[in-house]
Predict the structure of Uroporphyrinogen-III synthase.
Amino acid sequence: MADETVEGEPLAGLRIALPETRQLDVLAQMVERRGAETWRCPLVSILDTPDQEAVRAWLGRFNAGAMDDLILLTGEGLRRLSAAAEREGCHEAFVTALAGVRKITRGPKPVNALRELGLKNDLTADEATTDGVIATLREQDLDGRTVGVQLYGEEPNEKLTGFLRQEGAEVDTVAPYVYADESNREQVEALAQGLVRGELDAIAFTSQAQVKRLMDVAKGIGMQSAVVEALNRLLVVAVGPIVADRLAQYSVGVDVMPEESWFMKPMVRALIERLAA
């Protein structure tokens, strides 16, 4: 919470909702020490998929050299695959196979995850979105190639997989993690009600799963339209274009987003710059 020691800081007087889970304390400290008061409401958690057999089977095919390309949509997904390979005793084979395929990344986070394994990507999406990946791959000959796709959570991304098949590629997807509810429903309902009552000045979304959870709960209590209206009245902050696209699906505009580095620290910096302007 904000206190007297942060008066005069760039975010002083701002009450901001934080739906983040994994790095909630880190994000809260970033904004609180700049004067903001926070409403902490972690909306989702990330877990290994319960279908570990499917992950093991995919790793077996990948390590055997069955794929020509691998599309990495998230850094989380690559880290989960790496951890699964470690558990299965095939991590060295996984890294070797990974080094041998063409690696296409959607944004900076999978690039960082590759770097942790001592590897680099081969193609970077024009924009860190599904459309950006598709635009990049339109320039490539995919006919007859087998393309692995590491999915975002359990989202099948039929737009991307459909494009790949249309281009003549075989597609082999893997979903190494799932999103699960984190805050109990009553806490999320309280956040929705607080938004509608005008008790917040801003909200900072760091994943599209957070947006979906809030909207699903709001819909369940008959408040989705009111929450959308409330969000469009306050300052909506998004960590990157994927989150912005999900908000746009609910007709919610984004007021603040980093221009190119889609992480929490640049997001907070963009918020400070917006308020200063």
